[in-house]
Design a protein that fits this description.
DHBP synthase; 15 strands; binds threonylcarbamoyladenylate; binds magnesium ion
């Protein structure tokens, strides 16, 4: 049985207790719900892969309570520290060298010399990390290859019976996963996400190099069919074709609409919920069409997720 825990001191204490016992607890972050396990425990991290049904041991993001806790697990350059100070807590993940002698399970980094680390802004994630008192490995709390969860009910839909508990914090406000930046040493965008790339470019004072997506093997788990609904997906649709469920944006009306005013923040926040709802409306073997989304700000992360949803399936 998977427990649903209320967002109270009691719920947080129970979640921390389960995690200390090596169990898995899904918890809300500002981006999506994470499937948390003790990042220092081989067994807990291996259980994360098992619960998600992940075929490969991709490296996971390590969540810590603050910059000081991050410095315990990885090594910051001056530039990395400046970015952390500017954007943490928040939807930015930094890929940095693992600190020698760090307590992290090697399974978290998939044996790489670097680790992806972030400080989530969600108050419940903060409270849980403080109560747990250590780093939490947490990929999105969905079955491998499926749509990321932005509500506790989504977590239950996919993982009930496979994890100990979910801490219910209601809907996530950002709605797409964190932006992943490597500094090796030039700033390289490995995954567009909840922190617009423009903000990072302004902070770095230069355009970002592009990595991930098969261009670079350093960010595995990034490619192709991911965030897949059951229905087929068509992008940049001006209108619905016969039998399609159209998800609109701005002036393109649809059965559903990501944001009738064309607000990308609103669109990102509701993206995965809309994908699930459209999937339900389309039914088995159905088709979903998405209106065009501008490739700026959070639109970049939205389009990245939509391209994966539309990619050919394995
Ligand atoms: O918003 C988020 O980031 C969510 C919430 C729960 O915090 N978490 C999340 O974690 O998306 P996860 O573990 O699914 O993200 C892992 C991504 C993978 O695509 C992986 O390739 C990349 O981070 N990654 C992890 N470690 C890496 C490393 N050492 N080098 C390059 N990429 C890495
Ligand atoms: Mg994921």
């Amino acid at each position: 049985m998977t427990e649903t825990l209320e967002p109270t001191a009691t719920g947080i204490a129970r979640a921390a207790e389960l995690l200390r016992g090596g169990q898995l607890v899904a918890f809300p972050t500002e981006t999506v719900y994470g499937l948390g396990g003790d990042a220092r425990s081989d067994l807990a991290v291996a259980s994360i892969f098992a619960a998600k049904g992940r075929p490969r041991f991709n490296p996971l993001i390590v969540h810590v309570v603050d910059l000081a806790a991050a410095e315990d697990v990885c090594v910051f350059s001056d530039q990395a520290r400046a970015l952390a100070l500017a954007f943490w807590p928040g939807p930015l993940t930094l890929v940095l060298p693992v600190r020698e002698g760090s307590s992290l399970s090697p399974l978290v980094t998939a044996g790489l010399g670097t680790v992806a680390v972030r400080v989530p802004a969600h108050p419940l994630a903060q409270a849980l990390l403080a109560a747990f008192g250590g780093p939490l490995a947490a990929p999105s709390a969905n079955l491998s290859g499926r749509v990321s969860p932005t509500r506790a009910e989504h977590v239950i839909d996919g993982l009930a019976g496979r994890i100990a508990a979910v801490l219910d914090g209601g809907p996530c406000t950002v709605g797409v996963e964190s932006t992943i930046l490597a500094l090796d040493p030039e700033p390289t965008l490995l995954r567009p996400g909840g922190l617009p790339a423009e903000a990072l470019e302004a902070a770095c004072g230069r355009p970002l190099a592009l990595g991930g997506d098969g261009q670079k093997p350093s960010a595995p788990g990034q490619l192709a069919s991911h965030y897949a609904p059951l229905a087929g997906v068509r992008l940049n649709a001006a209108e619905a074709e016969a039998g399609e469920v159209l998800v609109g944006f701005g002036p393109v009306r649809g059965t559903l609409n990501l944001s009738s005013t064309g607000d990308l923040v609103e669109a990102a926040a509701g993206l995965f919920q809309a994908l699930r709802e459209a999937d339900r409306l389309a039914g088995p073997g159905g088709r979903i069409a998405f209106a065009p989304i501008p490739e700026t700000g959070l639109g970049r992360a939205i389009n990245d997720r939509l391209r994966r949803a539309a990619a050919p399936r394995d």
